[in-house]
Amino acid sequence: VSHWTEVGHLTNALENQSVLIRGRAQTIRAVGNKMSFVVVRERGFTVQCVVTVQPDTVSRQMVKYVAGLSRESIIDVEGVVSVPSVEIKGTTQQVEVQVRKLYCVSRAAVLPINIEDAARSDVEIEKALQAGETLVRVNQDTRLNNRVLDLRTPANQGIFRIQSQVGNIFRQFLISEGFFEIHSPKLIAGSSEGGAAVFKLNYKGQEACLAQSPQLHKQMAICGDFGRIFEIGPVFRAEDSFTHRHLCEFTGLDVEMEIKRHYSEVMDVVGPLFVAMFDSLNKNCAKELEAVARQYPFQPLKYLPETLRLTFEEGVQMLKEAGVEVDPFGDLNTETERKLGQLVLEKYGTEFYILHRYPLAVRPFYTMPCHDNPAYSNSFDVFIRGEEIISGGQRVHVPELLTERAQALGIDVKTISTYMDSFRYGAPPHGGFGVGLERVVMLFCGLNNIRKTSLFPRDPLRLAP
Ligand code: ATP
Ligand code: AMO
């Protein structure tokens, strides 16, 4: 009797046993008219199946039928596991299956991209081209246009399992720290972050927009005495330019919490949360990380058990000493952020750190100014490999100051009046932060484009698939 076995589980231990596998015919190769080889792939694992004419099981027609299968068709294979005397190249599993029966479950049409080509690293492509192989370099747009096929590569199988683990640890860690999960509305009356990057829509005749973040409602939940909360949900930004790290829709991991004395209480959550996450990824997603690194080589993230905190002023000073002049009360740009990341790595040996006490002028209206110097604010950004993954800080919970700050930044307070009002009936001091899920995965894995870590990315020109 054959048992359903996963391709990834086919090892020497199953030698001479009869197994039943289901997977895709990744490659099909006929040798004369008596023998065919099919490499069967199941979720990133591959095994070679050998079809040879056998007196009572495999006919000549069967061998011919197999040779005519189309790539990526889903097939069921029943056969016996064998261990060849020579090393098998080009498959993940080091055994073969001697086929007795083979059925096509679902036939694939002619493919617009070749999965094997799409799975190669740049170095492998160069080598293959030098060896005179013909292959097609699959560019990003072609991948995204054919995303369902692109997702079948081992690297992509890894990326989205890693993404799942990031969300999983975020949730588990926060629950263990006394937070609970909320779900805030995504259809709202006004912009949540200020600024123009908002998708407007018609809400039954009333002007509305898609939430740029759960900012307003997560703070309102704190005013509703929810104490410590988090949310995992979609965030919409009408970005109008193309960068490697901005999407029009991404997944936000948001936290909001009461604080007693100082915004450092929020940073006290961020540091251990991310150290626990990185530890877990390295431990529990080793295979997935390896699959990503095989196609997109990267060095493991360097981070410290105790997360480094620097003030914005210290950051500006480090840049100055390195000959990079930046406005001490302006924002860092992509280039200066990266440069600071390099300097921090050289000095402190970490690629993960918190930069806090940002100039007030570059933060959103709801940010609490510093008590000792209102040119600065009780806020922070968090960086991986010199790029921002998190923004956060303490919020203004005093209604008069909130109105003043909103007006100073030209916010139309009428559109967020219910938010403004929620601070009038007693509001506890509080703070929180927002994380971009796709950015965390992109930067942890040292990937060069956020579209690689978004399942079906949305950018200014892409609304499909
Ligand atoms: P957020 O603004 O949501 O906190 P962010 O990573 O976009 O996240 P910003 O502070 O807006 O952070 O931007 C930091 C730098 O990134 C900017 O100074 C700018 O150089 C660059 N940048 C931000 N948005 C864009 C964009 N839409 N197009 C090009 N560059 C951008
Ligand atoms: P911010 O606007 O910085 O802060 O967003 C928080 C985090 O979300 C990610 N992010 C993005 N990811 C992909 N595409 C985008 N267009 C994009 N924009 C932002 C980044 C960023 O660090 N309400 C505050 C958070 C808070 O203070 O709680 C906020 O939205 O990783």
Describe this structure in words.
- With 465 residues, this protein is α+β, with helices and mostly antiparallel strands.
- Helices cover 31% and strands 25% of the residues.
- The protein has helices spanning 60-67, 115-118, 122-130, 140-145, 147-150, 154-176, 215-223, 264-284, 286-295, 312-321, 334-348, 399-408, 417-421, 437-444; strands spanning 3-4, 18-31, 35-42, 45-52, 74-82, 96-106, 180-181, 187-188, 200-203, 206-210, 228-236, 249-258, 308-311, 352-356, 379-384, 387-394, 430-436.
- An 8-stranded mixed β-sheet has the order 7-11-12-17-16-15-14-13, sandwiched between helices.
- A hairpin with a 2-residue loop joins strand 9 and strand 10 (206-210).
- Helix 6 (154-176) crosses helix 8, helix 6 (154-176) packs across helix 9 and helix 6 (154-176) crosses helix 14.
- It is elongated and about 90 Å long.
- The two termini are 42 Å apart.
- The mean pLDDT is 96.
- It binds adenosine-5'-triphosphate (ATP) and aspartyl-adenosine-5'-monophosphate (AMO).
- Adenosine-5'-triphosphate (ATP) binds at residues 239, 241, 243, 246, 331, 333-334, 388, 391.
- Aspartyl-adenosine-5'-monophosphate binds at residues 193, 213, 215, 237, 239, 246-247, 250, 252, 254, 388-393, 432-436, 438-439, 450.
